[in-house]
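Sample entry (372 residues):
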Amino acid sequence: MASTPDFPSKLTPHDPRVLSKTTTINGKKYHYLLSAPAPPTDGDDASQPRGTVLLIHGWPDLSFGWRYQVPFLVSLGLRVIVPDLPGFGRSDSPAELTAYSFKSVTRDLLELVESEVPGGRQQIEKEGGILVGGHDWGGAVAWRFALWFPDLTRAVFSVCTPFWAPRAGEFVPLKQKVETVLPNFRYQLQLSGPEFEAQVKGEEKIRQFLSGMYGAKGPNGERVFSTEKGCLFENLPKMGKSPLLDEQEMDYYVKEVAGNDGGSMRGGLNWYRTSQVNYEEERELLQQLEKRGKNAKDGEKIVEPPALFVLATKDAALPPAMAQGMERFFEKKLMRREVEASHWALWEQPVKVNQAIAEFLGGVLAEGDAKL
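Predicted structure, serialized as tokens:
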């Protein structure tokens, strides 16, 4: 996407417009990107960004996955914080699965934002809360952030990932879900097991896999991944170049992904091993929802902040059917937009995604500005 006055150019690896920082929260090292509007030249120290955005990526991705959105959001006068989730990039990859749970990660991310925003929680409350956005697993984290911390969530948006409510009934194992209601999640059976972790490690295999995941094909149209089987290991050496990343970006991804956990993708795969941990920890969340007067049993209107969902019409892993009827979970009217894109909508349709986010945040920010 070419730079225009309305859409600044995307981030490049090691872009000077962002700071690359690390911090330790609850014993876990987090790497994150930070970008904010330039301070005014008139020396007005009282000037503050219009708000704080927390952007959360998914699998297999990094904070750099939001490269088209960060400069744009900063151009709207917002402070932007983008972490590498546990298991990814330069963040830690703990052994215990609880480190990857929605409860654990949402708490970590709240502390990260509080530590980075001058004035901490007091300033966040003054801003009306955090603007939280996510994609893929990051979308699921964003939705859960809004449930755990509704008073500290100014607004929430998700690209590709629909909302699903915490389960009030008995635990349903992943295999049972796949065989009954979510056949499009069959690939997760492979990712949650030992095979992928053993097969895809080291820079060469990771480059082949990421190229294929990001749109590359073999000479005869071979693909490296399907929602039915997961990774098609025999096709790894056949992958050409990704149409979505240039050479510099792919080099960056490979180094960052292979640099975690000794060249293994184990940490990121742990996100697919947390279903029971999340189920057990969300007993507490259901109780909190009930105390707030919410109908936690069926999930009606449990999401309180303003919300946006951007659907990708060609997403095979998170198909449009998964988002049917999700409006009932939202207390305020859910804004819905869609883009003609695969799972990588952030990169395939950056202008339309950014326009949807800007339209949504425009109303939220205008409401906040009116209160000042």
